[in-house]
Amino acid sequence: MKDYKDILVFGEIRGERISPVTRQLMTIGKTLSGRLKQDLCLLFLGKESPEAAETGYGYGADRVYACVDPLLEHYMTDTYLQAMELIVEELKPRFMLFGQNDIGLDLAPRLAFRLRTGVTLDCVDLNADPENGLLEMIKPVFGGKALGRFRCPDRFPQIATLREGAFDPADYKESAKSQVIPINLSLEPGAIRTKFLKKEEDESLSLALKLASAQVVVSGGRGLKKKEGVDLIRESADLLGGAIAGSRPAVDNGWVPGSLQVGLTGRKVNPLLYMAVGISGALQHMAGCQKSKTIVAINSDESAPIFRLAHIGVLGDYREVLKGFNDELRRMRPPDIP
Amino acid sequence: MPNIIVCMKIIIDPEAPFSVFKIDRENHRPIPPPGVQPVFSPFDENSLEAALRLKDDNPECRVTALSMGKSLPKAILQKALAAGADQAIALEDPEFEDLDPFTTAHVMASAIKKIGEYDLVFTGRQAADWDAGLVWAGIAEILDIPSVTIARRVDIRDGKALVERCVSDGIESLESELPALVTFTSEGGEMRNISLPALMKVKRQEIPKWSASDLGFEKTGIIEMRDLFEPDLGDIECSMVPGESPEEKGRNLARRLMEEGLLPG
User: In whole angstroms, how far apart are CA A122 and each of A101, A224, B7, B215?
Assistant: First the structure.
């Protein structure tokens, strides 16, 4: 097993830059590489080598790899799986880290089963034991009601996906290195059993993008009771220059689009201000927003758990509370253009 | 005749209040809360609904609900039948308690092979107890079939599956060879209502039981759980905003956020 060494981060690009979750992986990757005294490597897959790849050195990589093939244009399980299997054979990484997102939750488990090794998804903390060189993986279970600590005792590579926001993104430091190391593979098109047809960007895409970077998020839950409630939270969000979101019941009821769902199986946000309107505070939901700097709860149920999880609470019918809130915001900060 | 196998896990109701959730730290497992009825894992219900919608459009589809555990309450399995599944199979054995996802995948895959003919295998994106999200991948790898995750809809056209996958910024459309495995997210749809007559009708329907020895069974030990513990939820003291009426509280909230510099810009 001594063959397997170094830490390999599966890199992603978003908007010409290394994505936030990849930079978060570099933070924990650096810590693990320090503990094991092994190298931290960053890997990109795609139809061409991304221009931002070399900035991986600035985020702490000892080596940056790019694996380029026209078949890797869109993420497809069979294609990426085949590529990763070959890359693991070549690089023999000890640990492999992915973001817990559309790709990570799909690729990491299949790769692990293919390689007959262990994997843990959606980890919130990772540790390495220098004595035995094993990865310790901590993940929320039972919707966040408990945490499990897992270990893969004797198989390699050891694979984990990391929950977005679990670590701060790595800072960029100028680096003398810039050489991106190409990995050449010959992928077998015959082994690809799935075809990418198209991607329709959700009409809510612009809202979703706004949510990802918003400093203020106004989020609605089951307590909105009807779709019209969304108009009120949208009004608050607009007045605050923020974004709207929803809990899973709000999505399941069709009040807000699925791409705006915050929670364990949705987005993770950490704005300066998170306003939870009619949200009971189920841990599944809080998993997506508990890193917010200030959480405000508006709820008519005095016993809702949210009042034990929020910093500021308002007890009352949200329609009246938000009416007063929005009126006062307008009074305090008149719009620029009357 | 497309055969769809839906993998449905029976779990402690995830909607049960936090206050009744207790763990047995020594044995790394939850203590089933008294009085809380087990349920199908919600994402598995979404995948059954997706299968039934496919059957609505293609009545020749045959839907099999497949569940595995130490003891599987018949009344819950019957819900899958009453909702419209053609048959249910119970993989029931004392050995099937607290299995890791790797072992579970092997048992499920053996059962699917034993069923024999299948075109689609559906599962939830993850079970709402351990939230592992791994078993589907093991089943697909062992059966050596393609997979599509976090789907909301599947259609069959020209002998292929058309799958809509819910990604963070939109919907991907994919075409997959059959047989294929698909995992569903809540956008697969809430499981349809079950009528009392439908429930009565399935009361006498036989639910075959397969045990560990019927399936070949070996624990893998690829992953071990070292600890199971309660999260530190911090010590937040929620400060309540005063006011005579909800509307006044709303105004006070706006003023307070402004005064405390909590409003950006």
Answer: 9, 29, 22, 31
User: Per-residue pLDDT tens for B55-91?
Assistant: 999 999 999 999 999 999 999 999 999 999 999 999 9
CA distances from B120 to B64, B179, B181 (A): 10, 5, 6
Give pLDDT, residue A77: 97
Token look-up 């960007």 returns A201
- Residue located via tokens 């119970």: B90
Q: pLDDT-derived band of residue A31, with 50, 70 and 90 as boundaries? A: very high
Q: Residue A328: its chain B contacts at CB < 8 A?
A: 250-251, 253-255
Is the CB of residue A314 less than 8 Å away from at least one CB of chain B? yes
Q: Is B86 left (phi over 0), alpha (psi -120 to 50) or beta?
A: alpha
Q: Look up residue A144 and give its two tokens.
A: 């966040």
Please give, one letter per residue, the 3-state secondary structure of B100-165. CHHHHHHHHHHHHHHHCCCCEEEEECCCCCCCCCCHHHHHHHHHCCCEEEEEEEEEEECCEEEEEE
pLDDT at A338: 41
What does the alpha-carbon distance between residue A231 and residue A326 come to, in Å, rounded to a whole number? Answer: 12
Enter the tokens of residue B103. 């072992």
Structure tokens at A62: 């000892």
DSSP A93: -
d(CA B185, CA B46): 7
> Left, alpha or beta for A198 (phi > 0: left; psi -120 to 50: alpha)?
beta
Inter-chain residue contact B180 with A209, CB threshold 8 Å: no
- Nearest CB neighbour to B169, from listed A147, A208, A324: A208
Structure token pair of residue A233: 């939270």
Give the separation between CA A231 and CA B197, rounded to whole angstroms. 41
A164-209 per-position pLDDT tens digit: 878 889 999 998 888 999 999 999 999 999 999 999 876 666 777 7
Residue ranges of chain B with per-residue pLDDT less than 70: 233-234, 265
**Which amino acid does the sequence have at A103?**
I
pLDDT band at A54 (very low <50, low <70, confident <90, very high): very high
- In A, minimum Cα distance to B176 occurs at A194
Which amino acid is it at A191? A
Strands (E), chain A: 7-10, 13-14, 17-18, 40-46, 63-68, 95-99, 119-123, 125-129, 134-141, 146-151, 158-162, 180-183, 194-201, 216-220, 243-246, 273-277, 294-299, 312-315
Res. A336: pLDDT tops 80: no
Which residues, at least 6 apart from A193, have a Cβ–Cβ distance to it below 8 Å?
A78, B145, B146, B176, B177, B180
Check if A258 contacts B (Cβ < 8 Å): yes
Mutate one of B229, B239, B257 to test the A interface: name it (highest A CB count within 10 A): B257
Q: What is the DSSP letter of A54?
A: G
- Quote the pLDDT of residue A205: 67
* CB A49 within 8 Å of CB A180: yes
